[in-house]
């Protein structure tokens, strides 16, 4: 039981630290506006959806 | 050696992860509009599945199994995969902007890609040895990439076709996938 | 009234499977028989309702920065519990569903609802939303399974997953006239594509009507 908790806490902490460090690492130059344009599902709240693509003009979203 | 090769072929062509196991459908439909994005996504998936499989395999046999923590494998694996993706993203952000430009945008999409978790679990439930695990973790995503690249070239052509209104978008893509699945089922007797 | 609307959204308007294309992996793979479809549906409903309730209860405690990792851990825990329950009480269902119970963790519906609904709404509303979306998922899954089992094997059957006792087994298409293609991957893709196209045709027609009325 104790080992289980230890393993879990270690992994969760490791993930948390990596997540935080990744967020702190700046995006390299020229990659700020990269979009995957994933249209696999129609969930427009997903930030991969092309709806969020601001680099194009607003009239082009057909 | 020959055994490994036939295992590789079986995982790529016969038990293809997309066309016979239906995993990774979201990126299969979502990131297959252009050949370039299909190649980027495929490469990112190969890298993540291979790396994450080695980590999960190691953690399972070194930490979980000796301590009788088999029941925790789902939580542990999903954490390891997510952490691995974060780590990879961070490293290529820092050291290789050009690689980040090509693959970086697909990495966040991969954490919730069921193919990664499936391969990690499959390596354990199939009781693979270390070498078998390595072959499997390369072959499965290679099959994913093969199908994704073929599919994207078909879809590029489909753009100019006159498709019935209600089939536009995903439905016609799924019909194409059905035909591909039929074609791939011919490989069944290969190995 | 508003609550009712949220609840029914999962069936047609925002159907997670045919409308939003979420959770396709399990839908295509599990929809071979009615038994698998309903078993999987119930498992997803259980996880979805519980995860929505827990996440909405904790929504003010979880820091916004690391909410996704926290959601993933909560969902993985719930899936492990559900998996153990199925393993213990319905072993035949467990072996039929295989890895797909574990893969509920990465089913976009669960994380999507946590992100889009549960972290903004109260506990009761979130539970209702989870139930509605889960039922929408189960209904779509059952619908595909019905078509595939009927055309592929010619019979419709359902058995109690706990005791394996057959509840009904009706041969509708005479033996020799069934189309085994529908039990294979190709059949899954075709069935799904046709149903999705039908829903999209229905939506198109409705949109056209609305346009005409607006004029």
UniProtKB/TrEMBL annotation, chain A:
This is Uncharacterized protein. It comes from Anaerorhabdus furcosa. The lineage of its organism: Bacteria, Bacillati, Bacillota, Erysipelotrichia, Erysipelotrichales.
UniProtKB/TrEMBL annotation, chain B:
The keyword Nucleotidyltransferase does not apply. GO terms for biological process: electron transport chain. It is a multi-pass membrane protein. GO terms for cellular component: endomembrane system; plasma membrane. It is an enzyme of class 7 (translocase). The chain crosses the membrane at residues 6-31, 38-62, 74-92, 99-121, 133-151, 172-190. Pfam families: Rnf-Nqr (PF02508). Keywords: Cell membrane, Electron transport, Membrane, Translocase, Transmembrane, Transmembrane helix, Transport. Its EC number is 7.-.-.-. It is found in: Cell membrane; Endomembrane system. It comes from the Bacteria. The keyword Ubl conjugation does not apply. The complex is composed of six subunits: RnfA, RnfB, RnfC, RnfD, RnfE and RnfG. HAMAP family: RsxA_RnfA. Part of a membrane-bound complex that couples electron transfer with translocation of ions across the membrane. Belongs to the NqrDE/RnfAE family. This is Ion-translocating oxidoreductase complex subunit A.
TrEMBL record, chain C:
Pfam families: Rnf-Nqr (PF02508). It is a multi-pass membrane protein. The complex is composed of six subunits: RnfA, RnfB, RnfC, RnfD, RnfE and RnfG. The chain crosses the membrane at residues 39-58, 70-90, 96-114, 135-159, 179-202. Belongs to the NqrDE/RnfAE family. It is found in: Cell membrane; Endomembrane system. It comes from Anaerorhabdus furcosa. Its main location: membrane. Its EC number is 7.-.-.-. It comes from the Bacteria. One of its GO terms (cellular component) is plasma membrane. This is Ion-translocating oxidoreductase complex subunit E. Part of a membrane-bound complex that couples electron transfer with translocation of ions across the membrane.
